[in-house]
Amino acid sequence: MDKQNDPASFNAASELDDVSPRQTEEIASQSRPSAALIHETIRAEGEQELERHWWAVLMSGLAAGLSMGLSLVVQGKLHATISEEATRQLVAPLGYTVGFLVVVLGRQQLFTENTLTPILPLLHHRDLCTLVKVAKLWGLVLASNVAGTWAIGFGLAHTNIFEPKVTDAFLELGRHTVQGPFPETFVRAVFAGWLIALMMWLLPATKGFRAHIIVVMTYVVALGEFAHIIAGSVECAFLVQREEASLGQYAYDFFVPTLLGNIVGGTTLVALLNYGQVAAELDQAQD
User: Fold this and answer.
1) 3-state secondary structure at position 118
2) What are the E-state strand segments in the chain?
3) Got the DSSP string for 149-217?
4) d(C-alpha 49, C-alpha 57), whole Å
5) CA 169 from chain center: how many Å?
């Protein structure tokens, strides 16, 4: 990192008394990226996503939906294998992180990432054209993610590749997606949307520790049994295709409150608040 990459760190170091120019640059190189730099890094990614061809977005979103099936598979396997209840509750959620690792490190399109990444360009431009692009991106990613979750759910529900106790674990995990009332599911989804968007905010500053951040943040989502629209869709789609839940339960008890909660958690608690903390600094830099 140098003064061109993070001018805020360089300027702060230059204000210190009795510090040479060389020491100033060394201090800046050791400083954490400023909030403004993180914001601009994510905004640049958002601008690129908004310009991607619709077919590329669909394929990436479909791949992400399929990849999220790994979260159910690994978590279900751990859930079925560990007999001691307390250990199972602490260890099995680690399996939930696998799908997110594949999706995020593989740069596949996940809907909850898009409650942050393209929102920053929208807050920057504040025009109808960008709003339309964001709405189009959201629609394409959500539709392709959900299609992928139903495809992997179908494969898991109608094949015998896992032993019955693992399948039973899939069912037990899936039942959690439709058991809560609408307001409770909405609140749990707000927490999930907040944590995933916060994870995306942290990634540009972590460099070689991206996998660690993904594991920690998504482990908290699983441990808290918070509702995630795509990971939960795999579980709930499996439940529906095993005739343990209806399409109405999928739509009303899971999909709608989870979608709304994830959007509120990601856009309000992360995008708007983090934009608010750097807005004045960004405006000053543009003057």
Assistant:
1) coil
2) none
3) HHHHHHHHHS---S-HHHHHHHHHHHHHHHHS-HHHHHHHHHHHHHHHHHHHHHGGGTGGGHHHHHHHH
4) 8
5) 24
Give the CA distances from residue 169 to residues 19, 75, 223, 238, in Å, rounded to whole numbers and listed in that order.
61, 9, 16, 11
Q: Name, in order, each residue with C-beta under 8 angstroms of 250's C-beta and a sequence gap of 6 or more.
A: 178, 236, 237, 239, 240
* Cα distance between residue 122 and residue 138, in whole Å: 13
Distance CA 201, CA 266 (A): 10
Using an 8 Å Cβ cutoff, are 234 and 66 in contact?
no
Considering the chain, tell me which residue range(s) the CATH 1.20.1080.10 domain(s) occupy: 35-286
pTM of the model: 0.84
Amino acid letter, 167: T
- For the beta carbon of residue 151, count every other beta carbon within 10 angstroms: 16
Question: 279 vs 76, 135, 156, 205, 282, CA distance in Å?
Answer: 43, 23, 46, 19, 5
CA–CA distance, 263 with 279 (Å, rounded to integer): 21
CATH architecture, domain defined by 35-286: Up-down Bundle (1.20)
Report the SS3 class of residue 238: helix
pLDDT tens-digit readout, 98-156: 999 999 999 999 999 888 889 889 988 889 999 999 999 999 999 999 999 999 999 99
Question: How far from 244 is each of 53, 148, 235, 239, CA to CA, in Å?
Answer: 38, 20, 11, 5
∠ CA(232), CA(234), CA(236), 5° rounding? Answer: 65
- In the chain, what is the greatest distance between 2 CA atoms, to the nearest angstrom? 73
DSSP state string for 8-66? HHHHHHHTSTT--HHHHHHHHHHSPPPHHHHHHHHHHHHHHHHTS-HHHHHHHHHHHHH
